[in-house]
Amino acid sequence: MAVHRIFGVELSPYSVKVRSYFRYKGIPHEWIVRGPATQAEFQKYAKLPLVPLVVTPEGEGIQDSTPIIEHFEALFPEPPIHPREPAAAFLSALLEEFGDEWGNKWMFHYRWRREEDQLSAAARLAEVMAPPGLDAEQQRGVAAGIRERMVGRVWFVGSSDQTAPQIEESFEASVAILERHLRSRPYLFGRRPAFADFGLWGQLYQCSTDPTCGRILRARAPSLLAWIARMLEPKGEGDFEPWSALEPTLFPLLEQQVGALFLPWSDANARALAAGQEEFSVQLAGRTFTQKPQKYHARSLAALRARYAGVRERAALDPILARAGCLDWLRG
Question: Which of 141, 109, 189, 142 shows the shortest CA–CA distance to 35?
Answer without folding.
Answer: 142
